[in-house]
Specification:
The protein is an all-alpha fold and 200 residues long. Helices cover 77% and strands 0% of the residues. The protein starts with a helix and ends with a helix.
Length: 200
């Protein structure tokens, strides 16, 4: 069995769990910042893009410390739980778990040493952020009515203007751009860590 295979099948240890806790906390803080700006309609629409950019550095630094399958999946579980508990709704929890596992599988396929696989894993992991936007399109009337009661007519009217049916794909595309930017920032900022971890 190769060293890469050993790393992928090794058990998660105490040190791994400590690393997971630290970087999950950093990731959640970075992801929470755009959420505080949601009172501005255009920034609410830009949330997946902003989350992708701001979480690039903590996720990429975490990636340099991942050698075992399950850590990225567990991060997805914990991120989803936090988002659910602060009121983001069950879609955030479900998508965080699902995309966390898929991201873990992608990164494992690259032996946790491939930059393309790491970036792709980051992109898939970040897709949970679309859950915050889904009610705008899948339950539009009830969502806008609820927001109107909370935020007022001007806010909802502007949000409705910014989110026609086709805007879902524009928001998704903006998230992909954010992933590329966030991933590049993370890699550039943490180049020494990437070299040490052997991520090419």
């Amino acid at each position: 069995m190769t060293a890469a295979a050993d790393q992928q099948t090794a058990r998660i240890g105490v040190r791994d769990l400590i690393t997971l806790g630290v970087f999950t906390a950093l990731y959640v803080v970075a992801a929470f910042i755009p959420g505080m700006l949601g009172f501005v309609p255009i920034l609410l629409v830009a949330m997946p893009f902003l989350i992708a950019v701001l979480t690039g550095i903590p996720f990429m630094l975490f990636a340099t410390r991942v050698h075992t399958f399950g850590l990225v999946s567990l991060m997805g579980v914990f991120v989803g739980l936090v988002m659910f508990l602060i009121g983001e709704g069950w879609p955030s929890l479900v998508l965080s778990v699902v995309f966390g596992v898929i991201a873990d599988l992608i990164m494992r396929a690259g032996g946790y040493r491939s930059w393309p696989a790491t970036l792709a894993g980051f992109g898939v992991f970040t897709a949970w952020s679309m859950a915050t936007m889904l009610p705008i399109w899948v339950a539009r009337d009830s969502f806008l009515a609820n927001q109107r009661a909370k935020m007022g007519d001007d806010y909802v009217d502007r949000l409705a203007e910014l989110t026609p049916s086709w805007a879902f794909w524009a928001v998704l595309a903006s998230m992909v751009v954010g992933v590329l930017i966030g991933g590049a920032l993370g890699r550039a900022t943490l180049r020494k860590h990437f070299v040490r971890a052997g991520i090419a």
